[in-house]
Amino acid sequence: MVGPSVYWLGLDENVIPDPSYPSKTRVLEIMGIVSAMRGTTIRSHTLGISFGNMLSVESSPGVYNQTAYEAIDFAILAARMYGIKLMIPLVDNYNWYHGGKYQFIGWDGFEWSGTGAAITPPDVGAHFYNTTSIVNMFTAYISEHLNHVNQYTGIAYKDDPTIMGWETGNELSAVIYADGPAPPEWTAHICGLIKSLAPNHLCVDGTYGFYPETGQLNVTEVDIFSDHFYPRDIARI
């Protein structure tokens, strides 16, 4: 399997107004480009990471925006038409436009500020993995999302063979944050939920970065362990 990361298929901040749902022409164009280049897979954040923004799937805790699903549904339909498989992350390490773990932390009443290494308090991100109410909030989102029925295909996401797999997150161990990598117990719990809902889909460990002390490679619920590689002097990972 080979292909690009096209993060904006569900919500796009590269257009005016910023952000917006991507146009159908733009989505079909990128599918055609990937297909012409013999790509077989697309990784796309905003087909799964979509909370905290008024255009998002979950704009506030437990409030789901069905309008946001139209763009996601169409992108999945387009991938299906072109025979392209999808890899979909379910949360980002930080917030950005499409939502991240700090969104859930804030929703649960924990205050934080800053970016990168300057986030205060520095260990606030650990609440995403260790606070039961936050874990429950995130797993409720996963259940809602995977059970959504695509308006174009009539197929629930959890049953759609166009979706190859779901990632527990994007770069959850990014080293500029002081909260550390995702604990193996959390990864096992999230992948267990994904596989209970979508038994024919793969679960990808979204930790990124090899941390032997976490035992990530020993989590039996994980199907794929992957990594991102950057130059040592890059400003952000």
From TrEMBL:
It comes from Dacryopinax primogenitus (strain DJM 731). This is mannan endo-1,4-beta-mannosidase. GO terms for cellular component: extracellular region. Keywords: Glycosidase, Hydrolase, Secreted, Signal. GO terms for molecular function: mannan endo-1,4-beta-mannosidase activity. Belongs to the glycosyl hydrolase 5 (cellulase A) family. It is found in: Secreted. Its EC number is 3.2.1.78. It catalyses: Random hydrolysis of (1->4)-beta-D-mannosidic linkages in mannans, galactomannans and glucomannans.
